[in-house]
Amino acid sequence: MAIALGAIRTKKKEINLHNNHIQKIAVVGPESTGKSTVANYLARRLDTVCVPEYARYYCAELNRQYTLQDEVNMFYGQRALEDALLPLAKNETLICDTTILTVKIWCDHLFGNTPKEVTNEIKSRKYDLYLLMDIDLPWQDDPLRDFPNDRAHFLAIWQKELDAISANYHIVSGLGDDRLEKALAFCQP
């Protein structure tokens, strides 16, 4: 693994020498709103890579209630995964299936505060576009999802958090292909 990460770091430096900017598009929002479906669709259509949601892998192996330390671990994992995949971005675009802002939202909701290392990183880690998934999709049960009746609350929290960082964002609504095509249209210049 260390050899692979070293190769990625080297490649990242090479890419940064040849490309002025990699556009980062973040697909975010409440649970069960099609984030992963949209993010993977965009990556295919824009012929680039998608940074998956690290928390899904982390929580799948967790056989207890998660703690604030688990949220911090997920923060570091998401950040490292994004940094590792950035050099592999093609067509000057990287799609992110969530961001570390999710950690802040969960920390505030579950524990009443967010560690400084997370809030400081949110201020410095920039995305060119956020696609905020609307709650118009029916809830899909999943062992890693909570709060099926609080999606409107979390959508409002997402809007508040995105406004707080002056994010460029669009709300993506619609069902099926309509949702996918709307998301893609927001990514076009």
Description:
This protein has 189 residues and is of the alpha/beta class. It is 52% helix and 12% strand. It has 8 helices and 5 strands; from the N terminus they run H-E-H-E-H-H-E-H-H-E-H-E-H. It has helices spanning 2-18, 35-45, 54-60, 68-85, 101-111, 116-124, 151-164, 176-187, and strands spanning 23-28, 50-51, 93-97, 129-133, 169-172. A 5-stranded parallel β-sheet has the order 2-3-1-4-5, with helices on both faces. Strand 4 (129-133), helix 7 and strand 5 form a beta-alpha-beta unit. Helix 2 (35-45) packs across helix 8 (176-187) and helix 4 (68-85) runs antiparallel to helix 5 (101-111). It is globular, with a radius of gyration of 16 Å. The N and C termini lie far apart (37 Å). Residues 1-19 have low confidence and may be disordered.
Question: What would the keywords be for this entry?
Answer:
five-stranded parallel β-sheet, globular, 12% strand, 189 residues, 52% helix, disordered N terminus, alpha/beta
Count of strand segments: 5
Strand order, main sheet: write it out: 2-3-1-4-5
How far apart are the termini?
37 Å
Mean pLDDT: 86
Strand content: 5-15%
- From the alpha carbons, calculate the radius of gyration and give it in angstroms: 16 Å
Number of helices: 8
Largest sheet: 5 strands, parallel
Tell me the structural class: alpha/beta
C-alpha geometry: globular
Helical fraction: 40-55%
What is the H/E order?
HEHEHHEHHEHEH
Low-confidence stretches: 1-19
What is shown here, in short?
It is built from eight helices and five strands, in the order H-E-H-E-H-H-E-H-H-E-H-E-H.
